[in-house]
Amino acid sequence: MADRGTRPPPEVLASWPKPNYINPENQTAVLIGIEVTLCVITAIVMGLRLYSRGILTKSIGSDDWLMTGALFCAIGLTIANCLAPQWGWGVHLYDFKPEWLVPARKLAIATEFLFVPCVGLTKLSILVFYHRVFSSKSFRLFVYAGVAYVVLYSISSIVVVFLQAIPLRAYWDKSIHGKFIDGQVAFMVFGVLNCLSDLYVFFLPIREVWGIQLPKKQRVGLVLVFALGSVVCIAGIVRIYYIWIVFSPTNWDFTYQGAPLYIATAIEGDLGILCASLPALKPLIHRYAPGLLSSGHGRSRPTGASPSYRLSSYDADRRRDARRITGIGGQGLSSYKLTNSVTSPTMLNNDSEENILPLQGQTAGWESGSGSNDGSANGIGKKVEIEVTVENVPYLGQDLEKGDGGGPINTRRTT
């Protein structure tokens, strides 16, 4: 289809006032004020997240690096959006200078491109975080499906951005004859797909969290933490509305209404990073403002709350190495399975957002920090099983303690 361009039909031109190129009505202050403020807040929160995860809890992971990449894209998006008013975005089309067309359309391409990896990396970071926290195989299948969806959506969106005009230069150079896609349809479709991925990612863990054996008040709190991203979904819906308005073929004031679209785009990108990073600040609050999370003093834990542990936080002097071998088989050659469990991990009192969930699944062989062994320990654990083949053992029904054995032992370690 042909490009709409910036010159309306004669009947629209007849209704326009005289152009004002000196001090036209614009939305520059609103656009820059919202975008810069939100970007600064997002950068500060992300910096605190990296400090909390990297310094306080020593648990920085790939989800943090993906979110850092999203932050850089969000900063680039904010810079491009703040330059947009300089080239006519946010002013009425009848006040739009002809020489603004080329830079204005190049900035539009830059904004469309930067938005895709900004939201894509944010959602990939959240999904990687889910993979760290939840060990359920069935749940992880949904995580993998979400990753595939986000990756395919992001790639296809970038392809559409650069193929909306063929050749792309025709998008801003009116001297080149080119072919153009229907921008309203294309960007509406991708806007809806983006909103669906927001809903999928931010509401995916709620059922898993709700099934955890915790007091109802704590479960509601966890659900609210994971559902915090619903505000991002609202921002995405607002963005879809402005896409429909700006790309409408009958809208001849799209430059003025482009400013709200730029604002909604930045809000969606920044809010995604903010909502995903706020839970990671819990260790920071515990350290410097413990009163915000507890009505008591110090690091006390509310009655009924489950203790939690950090992965790879086991203290060598607090560790218990419990090994037990049980045997099956016939005379002369028997097979044994040795279960090796590391118990009594260091309690971290729910300092990290990875530690808000009790240990799921097999808990036999674990003891809590208080020394109890009731099979319901909390935390993130790893159980290692070792299959042992023993030859010429005279006492097949006897449990073997570490270091014992009547013959050569060959071991095969499985995880």
TrEMBL record:
The chain crosses the membrane at residues 29-52, 64-87, 107-129, 141-166, 186-210, 222-247, 259-281. Its main location: membrane. It is a multi-pass membrane protein. The keyword Signal does not apply. Residues 48-287 form the Rhodopsin domain. It is found in: Membrane. Keywords: Membrane, Transmembrane, Transmembrane helix. It holds the Pfam family Fung_rhodopsin. GO terms for cellular component: membrane. InterPro entries: Rhodopsin_dom_fungi, SAT4-like. Belongs to the SAT4 family. This is Rhodopsin domain-containing protein. It comes from Orbilia blumenaviensis.
